[in-house]
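Handout, page 2. Input:
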Amino acid sequence: MLDFRNTNTLWASIIAETLQRLGLTTAVICPGSRSAPLTIAFAQNKLIETIPILDERSASFFALGIAKKSGVPTALICTSGTAAANFYPAIIEARESRIPLLILTADRPPELRDCHAGQAIDQVKLYGNYPNWQAELAIPSASIGMLDYVRQTIVYAIERSTFPTPGPVHLNIPLRDPLVPVSDIAVEALETQFDIEYFFAGLEPIFAAETSTPPSPPLLKGGVRSAIEPICAAETSTPPSPPLPRGGVRSAIEQWPECSKGIIIAGVAQPEDAEKYCSAIGKISQLLNWPVLAEGLSPLRNRAQLNPHLISTYDLILRNRELADKLTPEIAIQIGDLPTSKELRNWLDKTQPKRYIIDPGHHNLDPLHGPTIHLRTSIENLATAISLHVPPLSKGGLGGVLTSPTNSPQIPPLNKGGLGGVLTSPSNEYLQLWRNTETQVRQTIDQKLSAINHIIEPKISWLLSQILPPATPIFISNSMPVRDVEFFWKPNNLEIKPFVNRGANGIDGTLSTALGVAHRNQSSILLTGDLTLLHDTNGFLITNKFVGHLTIVLINNNGGGIFEMLPVAKFDPPFEEFFATPQDINFAQLCATYGVEHEIIEHWEQFQQKLSFLPNNGIRVLELQTNRRSDAKWRQDNLSKFAKGS
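Output:
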């Protein structure tokens, strides 16, 4: 409903009502005076969940986590001054991770700027080039023309947060006094002349359309959809086949089946429909008979049955130089961003295969600057195009994949130690070498880690991949945890949902983002190190507004474990003080301060018991105390040996 008490309340309530009708469900609000009209408007809208959070940086990452989980823009609101500056790291991450956020910063009006009025900084284009779009709204006015203007500006802002590539949008909103809802007779009189339903006619939730080539813009439910349906309706009930994409995709589809030394690389991904995403990659892999090198942060590792040619140990395999040379590819299909692995990146840089990057967005996803071709389409569309236009071959070609009447691949269940038991075409020796090596390396890892009884970092991610309840969301922090997941996360069929902030790869806001992912979600996990958790302890202030459960698996090695793996570790001083930066924190006392449950894990049986069933609400910390130097030495001693069978 609209609030006609004064110009500011009307202006702000139109913003909130427009966003609610466009499908926005959540607003994260930081306290402040200048933003009072916005705060009141959102708090009064019963269809938007409004969550007050004290710390702006924590609030922004919490909003990022909610949008990351849902794919729907989340509103983020603050007062004027440096409050808005604290949103910056999350806005950078939203841009780089392609997550929709709508930032509403209240501001002083023009006459109170550049005159030391207090709490006034230059907020116009505050976030540089990181927003998809940014604008400063006009000073609020109660005229019908200006109300039309603010409504349509909000519509455009939501569109730009989702199309052509999701990301942040910033609206700076100057507001004059009164900031509180005192009555203005002239504005109140306007209510009797105002037709709310006419004013908001045609506004319905925006949703992302099926990705096409190039990607389609978001559609409005109802009006636009019903308008285009008569034009697009086929004469029969059978849906028409999509046309073969033009240019590069057509040429690629013609070339790929001729190549017996091709690979598919699946990087970090958080697709809206993980099942469709993984099935599409599996379909392409089987049609081409190419292996799929799947990042630990990809949903592919948690839906292994959809892909019989899954390779999870590529980083370890490529440390064997002789094997790496034999596995040199001619063509590589890169889906989204490259995986984290430096071994993989160096190998691609050295071997220089012809690389095709599959992503519907407009970003450049090639940090290696190799001979690449960007195909601006989704992997789902590509799979459909290949299946329609690449006929299955007979013996010696791409045939031999057993399919059911519904044309879904029939893949045997996982065997202990890997993905054994999958039949592949005997003609493709290159694929078979990948498969055999994967099985061998995976068995070696399993044997080595299962025999370790003391608490060691690498075993944590390996064990998590096997013991979590089905479909558990897990947020994995940057630095060492993402690398251990890439090394050791075992392929499974648990449909675990990985989340990560790999846009800018920072440790900022990790706890807050994980809480956003877990909010009103299935009971969730955060895997993090001690420094990353300490960097965002203000996230614990969200506890009283958090709905759901988060278990924090805390690896406490008293410092930055990632630095132990880098050359700088050999130079001490200054290594320990300035790089490892141990903090010597008692986490039991820290958790007690925020009323968070805490327990030290002393053996693996206890760890499994605590994670086999997750609580429904609250936050708890399971702390595993490790030795970062001995863990780093274990990795250095073993990572290169796994591909040699030792």
